[in-house]
Amino acid sequence: EESHDGARSRLRDFLGLLREEPQRVWREQEVARFCGVSASRLRLLFRLETGTSLRQFEIGAKLECVAKALQGGRARVADLADEFFNGNQSYLSRAFRRRFGCPPSA
């Protein structure tokens, strides 16, 4: 396994990739390999670095993109659900409301 500092640096690099490609679904094992650590070590490092899990961080990044697209008035909720959440509009709506306190259509 890579050193703690090296793994944290690689994790920061990964976080940049995740923000650049929010539509992509990242598997934990793939991220662990990218960072040079085991999956269990990744879970610990990820929580220490971000305060949340990989999955929750990924969802948050997607929701931020959805919010920006809706703010710009250039997208429909159904299209954004297709792009970011496998077409699951009800999941998008629930997650958006939990994060921002209002439905995505507001």
Question: What keywords describe this structure?
Answer:
106 residues; mainly alpha; 0% strand
Q: What does this protein look like?
A:
- The chain has helices spanning 4-20, 28-35, 39-50, 54-71, 77-84, 89-100.
- Helix 2 (28-35) packs across helix 3 and helix 4 packs across helix 6 (89-100).
- The chain is built from six helices and no strands.
- It starts with a helix and ends in a 6-residue tail after the last helix.
- It is mainly alpha-helical.
Unreliable stretches, pLDDT < 50, 5 or more residues? none
Helix content: over 70%
Radius of gyration: 15 Å
Sheet with most strands: none
| Element-by-element helix/strand order | HHHHHH
Classification by helices and strands: mainly alpha
How many helices? The count is 6
Based on the structure, what is the oligomeric state of the protein chains?
Answer: single chain
DSSP strand content: under 5%
Distance between the termini: 47 Å
How many strand segments? 0
Categorize the overall geometry.
elongated
What's the overall average pLDDT, rounded?
A: 91
